[in-house]
Specification:
The structure is a single chain. The protein has 336 residues and is α/β, with parallel strands linked by helices. It has a single domain, classed as TIM Barrel (Alpha-Beta Barrel), CATH 3.20.20. 32% of the residues lie in helices and 17% in strands. It is built from 13 helices and twelve strands. It has a twelve-stranded mixed β-sheet with strand order 7-8-9-6-5-4-3-2-1-10-11-12. The protein is globular and about 55 Å long. Bound molecules: S-adenosylmethionine and iron/sulfur cluster (2 copies). The site of S-adenosylmethionine (SAM) has 21 residues, from β3, β5 and α13. Keywords: 4Fe-4S, GTP-binding, Iron, Iron-sulfur, Lyase, Metal-binding, Molybdenum cofactor biosynthesis, Nucleotide-binding, S-adenosyl-L-methionine. Pathway: Cofactor biosynthesis; molybdopterin biosynthesis. Monomer and homodimer.
């Protein structure tokens, strides 16, 4: 396998695995309820990779250089027995980090079990601290209480916790400071995410984006922030630290300051397709290829071929024309 790895033209360090495309929320920027209504057809179970299939592919990705795996969805904690998958992945030699991105609602039930299985960290999505606004954003009228309980459960279980806040102009930009203060008071790293044009159902417009610069300027009026050097090549978040603390604030600047040239991330969908960019329209099948009886080396060769064939720079090239005309996968399908 080492020889296949040597042929990769660019390092492949980071893998996101979506384990399910369903969700218990309908966040308006991700799964608008008008589109993901009661008749929406999600993937049937037979289409999903089994945990053993995910383990096998993850092992091969790690042999090709992946050091970090993040489980995502839809809502990953809706997939039955997720701690078992974490346990399988935690046995993979040379895999340095396993994380999970979740809306947090099911963490009180699973946080301890996930930590015991080998999970290191969770990113929990929370876009507002106001019940009414949060209920409107998540499309299910769920107040912030269940998410705050999930955050507490994750901290008590000893997991590293980061909070993801998608900021959309006129919707929740008034929550930039309350969220910063809540995270500072509770020793949580907050990451502000620029609203993105993932998929084609969330009605994205450039005018809806609150850029990192705008958020930073608002924060600077309230806090002293010191820039922090990236921890590793390709780190996506630009980080600052509240002066005199070890609490960071991060920005995911996918729209205003794209980072395609250092992108080392691949994504695996719940039905076993590999995507080399969040904004791809079509993935490359690994599931049926694997089910046809090929060996690990053949799978590694396929992954290498797909990765070497990539020339993705979507965020570098984003224009009104690409936003409107390009076929893209939905965020809930590929998991961010
Ligand atoms: N359900 C889980 C959750 O919400 O954390 C995991 C999947 S969700 C698709 C992953 C991340 O993508 C979340 O932090 C969510 O806020 C973010 N996200 C969804 N739609 C987005 C958009 N249009 N722009 C930016 N981030 C988005
Ligand atoms: Fe579900 Fe996460 Fe998308 Fe919200 S952001 S609808 S919680 S997948
Ligand atoms: Fe990577 Fe595509 Fe995002 Fe650029 S737009 S950073 S290539 S995922």
């Amino acid at each position: 396998m080492a020889k296949v790895k040597d042929r990769l033209k660019r390092p492949l360090r980071d893998l996101r695995i979506s384990v399910i495309d369903r969700c218990n929320f309908r966040c308006q920027y991700c799964m608008p309820a008008e589109i993901y209504g009661p008749d929406f057809v999600f993937l049937p179970k037979s289409e999903l990779l089994s945990y053993e299939e995910i383990e096998r592919l993850a092992q091969i990705f790690v042999e090709l250089g992946v050091e970090k795996i993040r489980l995502t969805g839809g809502e990953p904690l809706l997939r039955k027995d997720l701690p078992y998958l974490v346990k399988l992945l935690s046995r993979i030699e040379h895999l340095k980090d396993i994380g999970l991105t979740t809306n947090g609602v099911l963490l009180p039930k699973y946080a301890k079990e996930l930590q015991a299985a080998g999970l290191k960290r969770v990113n929990i999505s929370l876009d507002s601290l106001k019940d009414e606004l949060f209920g409107q954003i998540n499309g299910r009228n769920v107040g912030v209480g269940p998410v705050l309980k999930g955050i507490k459960a994750a901290q008590e279980a000893g997991l590293g916790v980061k909070i993801n806040m998608v900021v959309k102009k006129g919707l929740n930009d008034s929550e930039i400071i309350p969220m910063a203060q809540y995270c500072k008071d509770n020793h949580l790293q907050l990451r502000y995410i620029e609203f993105m044009d993932v998929g084609s159902s969330n009605g994205w417009k450039m005018d809806d984006v609150v850029t990192k610069k705008e958020i930073y300027d608002i924060l600077r009026e309230h806090y002293s922030l010191v820039p922090v050097d990236p921890d590793y090549y390709g780190e996506v978040a630009k980080r600052y630290r509240h002066q005199g603390t070890d609490i960071d604030v991060g920005f995911i600047t996918s729209v205003s300051e794209s980072f395609c040239s250092s992108c080392t991330r691949s994504r695996l969908s719940a039905d076993g397709k590999i995507y080399t960019c969040l904004f791809n329209g079509n993935g490359h099948d690994l599931r049926d290829f694997m089910r046809s009886g090929v060996n690990d080396r053949q799978l590694a060769e396929r992954i290498c071929e797909v990765w070497n064939g990539r020339d993705d720079r979507y965020s570098d090239l984003r224009t009104a024309e690409t936003v409107a005309n390009r076929k893209k996968i939905e965020m809930s399908y590929i998991g961010g």
